[in-house]
Amino acid sequence: MADNILIAIAWPYANAEIHVGNITGSHLPGDIVARYHRLQGNKVLVVSGTDSHGTPVTLAADREGKPVEEVYKKYHDGFLELFQGFGITYDLFTTTHTENHFKVSQAIFLALKENGFMFTQKSLQWYSPSAKRFLPDRYVEGTCYICGFDGARSDQCDNCGNVLEPEKLKNPRSKEGGALELRETEHFYLDLSKLEPDVKRFLEERSPHLRDTVIGESLRKVEAEGLKPRPITRDLDWG
């Protein structure tokens, strides 16, 4: 009997020209696995697309001086054309800017809220007096207060991999230029601590099938540090 195989390939941000890592790291391997299972007679569904929201896309639009929707569509279409040029096929290659995505995201959000996995909390975020708006994550860079890397985002350091508290960032500077100040804002937080037992159980059950590096970056970190609440909303109009 044929198996049903779902292959969900990582979605790159639609904010810049694609790089070779997006092809060799996820889309090409996914296509190889899909071809293998089709040859085995299995029913295969390959799904991917582009992330068309968030600060990476709005920053690209600011940089190019164009509407956000125009920018993401340009890169989305370019990605698909390039992938198909390599012979990679998809049953669905979509974007986060669709009515279906809106409805599913809203349904998940409301389900988490109604089942007690979310709460609101006030925190300090960087604010631009000249632009009269908050500047979330990638809009502010500075020096990581944990590893000293100069180029950390206000919410995360890609050098040491740690989640950061914006107000602790050293030498903060706006991507837009101009002065910065800390102001209080309120957001929804996903209470990951409530999900920690289920996450640990999930990883433990699958650990025999996972690489040591994956276990080290997932299960071992959960065991050592625990899961902490994370904000899942932003002071941002687009996404």
Brief sketch in words of this structure:
By secondary structure, the chain is α+β, with helices and mostly antiparallel strands. The protein has seven helices and ten strands.
CATH class of the largest domain: Mainly Beta
The CATH architecture classification of the largest domain is: Beta Complex
Q: Stretches where pLDDT falls below 50 for ≥5 residues?
A: none
Q: How do the strands line up in the largest sheet?
A: 5-4-9-10
- Helical region count? 7
Helical residue percent? 25-40%
Q: Which class best fits the helix and strand makeup?
A: alpha+beta
What fraction strand?
15-25%
Total number of domains: 2
The topology string of helices and strands comes to: EHEHHEHEEEEEEHHHE
Shape by Cα distribution: globular
Distance between the termini: 42 Å
Q: For the report, how would you describe the main beta sheet?
A: 4 strands, antiparallel
What is the averaged pLDDT score? Answer: 94
Oligomer: single chain
E-strand count: 10
Instruction: Give Rg in angstroms.
Output: 20 Å
Q: Determine the CATH topology of the largest domain.
A: Methionyl-trna Synthetase, domain 2
